[in-house]
């Protein structure tokens, strides 16, 4: 069982899917730390978040949010895409040892 204090320390990152594009298309997350990724599908159609390198897939229902837990991961680049719009709905998560600054937190929609 995970304590409430551990959950409170888990960084939360946000992605928005709009017009079959992910925003931000590139984000940086901390290495060796489990994170919570909230994906807000603002489109009127279903999409599927897919990532072979993250070993994750999740159906994103229209006008709803989905949660995916990622990590802990070693530093590197991890690509993702929308299965139904793979040419437009694309992105990359960079896992870094660098500490997140205020500017990177704002760019990554971090709480």
UniProtKB/TrEMBL annotation:
It holds the Pfam family Cupredoxin_1. Residues 7-95 form the EfeO-type cupredoxin-like domain. SUPFAM superfamilies: Cupredoxins. InterPro entries: Cupredoxin, EfeO_Cupredoxin. Gene3D superfamilies: Cupredoxins - blue copper proteins (2.60.40.420). It comes from the Bacteria. Coiled coil: none annotated. This is Cupredoxin domain-containing protein.
């Amino acid at each position: 069982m995970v304590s409430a204090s551990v959950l409170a320390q888990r960084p939360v990152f946000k992605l928005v899917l709009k017009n079959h594009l992910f925003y931000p298309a590139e984000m940086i997350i901390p290495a060796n730390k489990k994170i919570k990724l909230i994906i807000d599908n603002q489109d009127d159609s279903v999409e599927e978040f897919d990532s072979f390198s993250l070993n994750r897939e999740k159906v994103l229902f229209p006008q709803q949010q989905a949660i995916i837990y990622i990590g802990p991961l070693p530093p590197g680049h991890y690509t993702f895409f929308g299965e139904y719009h793979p040419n437009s709905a694309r992105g990359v998560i960079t896992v870094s040892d660098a500490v997140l600054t205020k500017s990177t937190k704002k760019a990554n929609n971090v709480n």
